[in-house]
Amino acid sequence: MKVAIGYQVHNSENIALSLRQHLDNGYNFIVAPLVHPRVKKFVPYSDVFLGGSERSKLVVYIPKRDYNLKNNCSLIESEFNYANHIGVNTMLIDCPDNRVALKNLSDIINRQFVSSSEHFNEHQAPSVCIKVPLIPYKSYSSKWRDDEPDVDYDESWEKWNFIRMITQSHPKLFVALELNGDPIDPERIERWFGEPIVMALLSTSSFLTNSSKYPVLSKAYQQLIQKLNFKLAGNFSFVINGNNLHGHLKHYLQYINHLKSTDLFEDKISKFCLGYEDVLQIPLQPLKDNLDSLVYEVFETDDIKYQQYELAIYKAMKKIDKTDMYVILLFIPSFLSMINFLNCITNRFNSVAMVVGAGRGPLVEKALKAAEQSKKYVTIYAVEKNVNAIVTLDVLRDLRWGGNAGLSNGVVQIINEDMRYWAAPRKADLVISELLGSFGDNELSPECLDGIWNYVTKETINIPRSYSSYMCPVQSHKLYSQLLIDKKINNNPYDYGYVVHVRNAYLIDDPQKVFTFVHDDLTKPPNERDNSRAKTMTFRSKLKTVCHGFVGYFDCCLYDDIYLSIVPSTQNANMFSWFPIYFPFQVPFNVDPNDEIVIHLTRNVGNNSVWYEWTVQQPTPSKIHNLKGKHYSISLH
Amino acid sequence: MKVAIGYQVHNSENIALSLRQHLDNGYNFIVAPLVHPRVKKFVPYSDVFLGGSERSKLVVYIPKRDYNLKNNCSLIESEFNYANHIGVNTMLIDCPDNRVALKNLSDIINRQFVSSSEHFNEHQAPSVCIKVPLIPYKSYSSKWRDDEPDVDYDESWEKWNFIRMITQSHPKLFVALELNGDPIDPERIERWFGEPIVMALLSTSSFLTNSSKYPVLSKAYQQLIQKLNFKLAGNFSFVINGNNLHGHLKHYLQYINHLKSTDLFEDKISKFCLGYEDVLQIPLQPLKDNLDSLVYEVFETDDIKYQQYELAIYKAMKKIDKTDMYVILLFIPSFLSMINFLNCITNRFNSVAMVVGAGRGPLVEKALKAAEQSKKYVTIYAVEKNVNAIVTLDVLRDLRWGGNAGLSNGVVQIINEDMRYWAAPRKADLVISELLGSFGDNELSPECLDGIWNYVTKETINIPRSYSSYMCPVQSHKLYSQLLIDKKINNNPYDYGYVVHVRNAYLIDDPQKVFTFVHDDLTKPPNERDNSRAKTMTFRSKLKTVCHGFVGYFDCCLYDDIYLSIVPSTQNANMFSWFPIYFPFQVPFNVDPNDEIVIHLTRNVGNNSVWYEWTVQQPTPSKIHNLKGKHYSISLH
Q1: Which fold has domain A293-434?
Q2: CB-neighbour burial class of residue A119 (10 A; exposed 0-12, middle 13-18, buried 19+)
Q3: How many Å lie between the alpha carbon of B41 and the closest alpha carbon of chain A?
Q4: Which of B80, B388, B392 has the highest number of chain A CBs within 10 A, making it the mutation to test binding with A?
Q5: Residue in A48, A297, A389 closest to B52 by CB
Q6: What tens digit of pLDDT does each residue of B526-583 get?
Q7: Which residues lie below 8 Å from residue B532, measured CB to CB, with a gap of 6+?
Q8: Which of B47, B89, B279, B399 to mutate to test the interface with A (most CBs of A within 10 A)?
Q9: B5-265 under CATH 3.90.105.10, yes or no
Q10: CB burial readout A475-514, b (16+ within 10 A) else e
Q11: What SS3 state is found at A100?
């Protein structure tokens, strides 16, 4: 169930009774300590009366303690062991105040994570949520005093970050964010959205009282929660804590449930993105591997993308001057000479469009539509190397595209060839392709289009005309921590790029343009071209942050003023064909405000493959990731 | 859905239409060829009209062909590629007749399996089901003739086995068994049940017609299907083929659905086994790892096991002679001397029971019950090393066992110690433990009980008194093939033993006793004992078969005539605490009828661990599996 709601019990003689009571009220779980808060020795409430299925509804709470004291360290270790024993999934730990206590707590957490992963037969260690306040407590109390508030708004985040760095961004480490007061500045909020928040803690005292005496949240809170829900894709819980101040504890739950039913919680993304939020995927290699029918099917349903293509093809067809010849037709006298003349102008007259990499034909459809709209007759060569897709193209040609005779606006020829090696019978007026990946050129569009040089002229229009990749450094515990899990199937997860629908991430700076490819003149043979690239980019952070790698995007000019983009500032709304690409850094690094982050990225072209290498130059030089394309390389064959 | 039902379409112009029609009739899927049977070139029905979700309801049928012809080999390769392309999950291939064709087909299948596993990003290759008849076709036709039937009843199995051996028992290779006539001899049927059958093919002509003109199956068929369903734990489908002979095609489906609702399909196993059929699990190591509360909870619900324990403890308590002293009480005159005497006999009088490895206390409960029934007063020491279980024991002692004062039948002391290192205050009359694993001694019961030598006497009764392991060679594609998958997490899957609720397996011979441990006298110190063992066992096969390893069991004398057993011939019904254990052979080998299978098994004891090594000596010597306990060893610490 998405966005569960729990209640935090501070002191209970009988966990089982307390749990059942709050479940009866409608809460989905409770947060409770394992030992009575005033007990110093470890004498936990027993699990005797807690049924197996009930235990997953218990989050164990560990109050703030000073982990400079050895006794407190043993106590929390006992709590961990016992929670593990009774099958508790989640621990909520109140973050200590001083640096040494933080260090000791981090060590304890780390040992839990490590010891559990050794026994692959055992229950997994519980998830650990670090409770931190959005607003530092000092600031909160200073409201009540008149002296100058000496508040460090980074304090919470720095404490969390310290524990995270020591546990090396462990995938079982999470944030429980206490929403304790009006939101801080937007940039700091954004930074929290790059952290793996799984709980939003709300005190009953944070609720206002409406005219019917029911608890409600202020607009500021509502907006914060809306953003939180979006960035976390609904993968978090609410925890209500504090005394009942509004008649009955279930009224808080009812209010949150009400919010959940409003458009505050509506996520308007396509169904093709749902469930893919922050999930790392290995990029497709359509040149090396034939795409499956289902993959084609999904991509074909991207209306936005194909509308743009149709518009671009229409504009390009309008531009192609051959069709102006229609008028000549009126002046031909005799029937025989007219036949000859017709043959002659049929050749000249037809514009020739080549759809290279036609797949199951969506661009063929769009080219036919554009021809109809622009009142042209077009001969379309649908060139496709995937023999399985050819089966579909053949059927569509017979059923929809008029077979050999064609339609009034054009005729389609199916060619089962790799576009790079096809001996084309004529030159193209228009070449249409959809060979772009998340990072623009990463599915080898430049190399494929270089290969068509012998069936184009200098006048041939290429759609897309040009494209550029973009990148920006990112803070995302969520993305990075998955690489630790991935390690089991991929030994070198840090030398790979991943396609991912990015949500739970903080962009440290605005994206900058990286590599650009322009296809105005395709007639140069491949050996005269150089598609290798290199660029050093300098970014600047606004806040203290951690850099976990960079995110890549692309934009593309199809023709004239028709664009496709997945760059956040210019992206086409509701287009879902491309998720961004994430390139990790093996060693994440801390960054101070105004620090420069310098990243060097190269695109390398070998005889058999193309690959990227990436390096951090500043603040601390890193290794060259994916050196020689040893791990992630895009095959040319 | 368990036990789906499909219909085989032999010739369809329009797969989509045909599929929808049969789904409307209630079938769950159809089996159909991709190309028209009379077409020689590969021109498949297109997927244009087949929606994404419909494709999983299509099983592609490949009719019998002669794979000596290159053309047929290319054809099936095209079919594989296209099926893969359109997202089909399952291929049904009719098994060819001659050896060369079989070899060629095996190569093609093998290449499919291998090529697909390289691209971990792609759709998985479809499962391949080899269609073979239960009764050879020759025998079938010979029924119609009077000449002596020259029938090889092993033919089908041998053809399947040939393909299986070449594909190395691949986890994606399955059997589609044609139930074509009355069942053959029971042993051959049993052998089929050791094969990964996923489809049972039934011709409409195999159905009888009942008085209402509806199709029904004979008793012989029904029993075969019942056994099939049990052995496969419901993980198979029916495929109906042939013309409609009974009014409407849906009547066959209705009849099978009727059977599914009868007790023919009822599986009376405990809910704790459900879903674990043929699932390999790493054995627990309760000595090294503390058990989880939920693990205790599940095992505590095994009523059969604890009934046997209660009975054994009752009989043992009856036997302990101290309690006969009750009668002396009558002759004591003065009050003071009586107090003294009481103290004195309390010490002598009390029988002392020690539950070593008490867990959360189920044997403590049983010992108290047995004391009550046998009218004894017992002091129970519950010795447990797991500090988390002690929490529960402490609570139970207060709540149920009368705390310090105890109950009328006894008092309980909780001792948080490893039984091997406990300095006991007195000697035990009775020691009760439950330290046995699937293979008897494999959870180190002998080593643990050796450790209690300094708090027992020669008269101390030990429950269990003795136990033995058993083993027999097994044919099970299902168990063995999982090791190929397992390889990703366990690099040496063939040097490991796995706990598994065995179903889809054929026992090649009856189990034989292997190692026995007797605990009549526990007073000898551990350094005078030797728990290492070695044995060479000779088994004999009845049929041609393949040996994939051996399965281990145990039985145990708790006391007197009270036994626990998981050996098939003597097992306690409805006891679920132990599944058998499976030891694989790295290289499965073919066995002829009456061949001897000689297996050497050793139990080795080192300073830090105990381990088994196993070797095939005949028919072909194997490597020593798990040499030096390098991969699977049971820790003593």
Answers
A1: Rossmann fold (3.40.50)
A2: middle
A3: 13
A4: B388
A5: A297
A6: 989 999 999 999 999 999 999 999 999 999 999 999 999 999 999 999 999 999 999 9
A7: B602, B603, B604, B605
A8: B47
A9: no
A10: bbbbbbbbbbebeeebeebbbbbbbbbbbbbbbbbebeeb
A11: helix
DSSP A234: T
Q: How far is CA A453 from CA A358, A419, A420, A529, B122, in A?
A: 18, 10, 9, 11, 32
- CATH, domain range B466-635: 2.70.160.11
Query: For residue B43, which residues of chain A lie inside 8 Å, CB to CB?
Result: 391
Convert the pLDDT of each residue in A495-533 to its tens digit.
999 999 999 999 999 999 999 999 999 999 998 999 999
Give the residue from A34, A43, A47 with the most B CB atoms within 10 Å of its CB, the best one to mutate.
Answer: A47
Which residues of A fall within a CB distance of 8 Å from B47?
293, 391-392
| Interchain pair A292, B55: CB under 8 A | no
pLDDT of residue A146: 56
Q: pLDDT for B118-139, tens place per residue?
A: 444 344 778 999 999 998 876 5
Could you give the CA distance from residue A548 to residue A110 in angstroms, rounded to a whole number?
Answer: 20
Encode pLDDT of A290-336 as tens digits.
Answer: 888 888 988 999 999 999 999 999 999 999 876 433 434 444 445 55
| 8 A C-beta contact, residue B531 and residue B603 | yes
Categorize the per-residue pLDDT at B490 as very low, low, confident or very high, splitting at 50, 70 and 90: low
Q: Is the separation of the CB atoms in A369 and A310 below 8 Å?
A: yes
User: In angstroms, how far is the first alpha carbon of chain A from the final one?
Assistant: 45
pLDDT value for B108:
93
Is there a binding annotation on residue B255? Answer: no
Do the Cβ atoms of A47 and B392 come within 8 Å?
Answer: yes
Name the residue in chain A with its Cα closest to that of B498: A121
Interchain pair B489, A120: CB under 8 A:
yes
Per the listing, tokens 């809460």 go with A27
Cβ neighbours of A419 (radius 10 Å):
24
Which segments of A338-484 are extended strands (E)? 351-356, 378-383, 410-415, 428-433, 456-463, 466-475
* Choice among A84-98, A596-610, B284-298, B492-506 with the minimum mean pLDDT: B284-298
| Contact: A121, B297; criterion CB under 8 Å | no
> What's chain A's average pLDDT?
89
| Integer Cα distance of B304 and A614 in angstroms | 64
Contact between chains at A47 and B284 (C-beta distance less than 8 A):
no
The winner for highest mean pLDDT among A49-63, B41-55, B344-358, B360-374 is B360-374
The CA distance from B274 to B501, in Å, is 9
Tokens of A484: 């630790």
Q: Which residues belong to CATH 3.40.50.150 in chain A?
A: 293-434
Q: Pairing between strand B237-241 and B197-203?
A: parallel
Q: Where in chain B is the domain with CATH 3.20.20.150?
A: 5-265
Least confident of A359-373, A441-455, B1-15: B1-15
Q: Which residues of A are catalytic?
A: 434, 443
The CA distances from residue B484 to A485, B168, B494, in Å, are 21, 9, 9
d(CA B404, CA B234): 53
What amino acid occupies position B575?
M
| Single-letter amino acid code for the residue at A570 | T
User: Which among B622, B595, B600 is positioned nearest to B613, based on CA atoms?
Assistant: B600
- CB contact set of A113 (below 8 Å; sequence gap of 6+): A125, A128, A167, A170, A172, A173
d(CA B3, CA A344): 66
Residue spans in chain A of domains classed CATH 2.70.160.11 = 466-635
Global pTM reads 0.86
